[in-house]
Specification:
221 residues; alpha+beta; Arylamine N-acetyltransferase fold; eight-stranded antiparallel β-sheet; 6 helices
Length: 221
């Protein structure tokens, strides 16, 4: 299931509802951004009997400044221990993280940490010897309606990075990543080696979506 914002650029309204998201992601074989991917994954987990809570998260920018509440949806799943689960944040952790573990949590070549700061839990990844914040969250439970205003913002505001360019990205089975960022095709191996190619036409863009992501679109916005 790719992380993608193609509906925004095709001017297709995004409806935060389990049925609508199932139709889009499963029946139409699409992806979505955080509210869609994590929203439908929460519905799947609940149907399988898991205790799932939707959480508001605030995303850190390059300067470490956090965005407003509800800028991102992430999930908490409670078993004997509490887990942070997120299938809607693009290039980040793949497997769930223990929410109450304050030590490093290793996934492949990457390390993550969840630290308590003020009234938040801050998720960070390690780059070289530095911890870089990805987002912060609290454990207050929420529902789709709580995310509706920020979801509209990301669909309509010229200030939102989702309206500024098209993105489609997925992890590979080998531990790498494939990303279409507008007309740039970026392939990253599990060793971190990165290759970039500039697509030359709308047809090549549509073909890449079809072959690499299984997404069929009629036109390029």
């Amino acid at each position: 299931m790719p992380f993608e914002n193609l509906s925004i650029h095709a001017h297709e309204p995004i409806v935060l509802d389990d049925t609508a998201l199932f139709t889009k992601i499963v029946e139409r074989r699409r992806g979505g951004f955080c509210y869609e991917c994590n929203g439908l994954f929460a519905a799947l987990l609940r149907a399988l009997g898991f205790d799932v809570t939707m959480l508001s998260a605030e995303v850190a920018n390059a300067e470490g400044i956090f965005s407003p509440p509800f800028d991102h949806m992430t999930l908490m799943v409670q078993l004997q221990e509490r887990w942070l689960v997120d299938v809607g944040f693009g290039d980040s952790f793949i497997e769930p993280l223990l929410l109450d573990d304050r030590s490093e949590q290793i996934q492949g070549s990457r390390a993550y940490r969840i630290a308590a700061e003020d009234n938040y839990l801050v998720l960070s990844r390690r780059e070289a010897n530095e911890w870089i914040a990805e987002y912060r969250l609290n454990l207050e439970p929420h529902v789709y309606e709580d995310f509706a205003e920020m979801c509209r913002y990301h669909q309509t505001s010229p200030e939102s990075h989702f309206t500024q360019k098209r993105i489609c990205s997925r992890a590979t089975r080998e531990g790498g990543r494939i990303t279409l960022s507008d007309m740039r095709l970026i392939t990253t191996g599990n060793d971190g080696e990165r290759h970039e190619k500039i697509l030359q036409s709308d047809e090549e863009y549509r073909e890449s979506l079809r072959e690499l992501f299984g997404i069929e679109i009629q036109s390029v916005a």
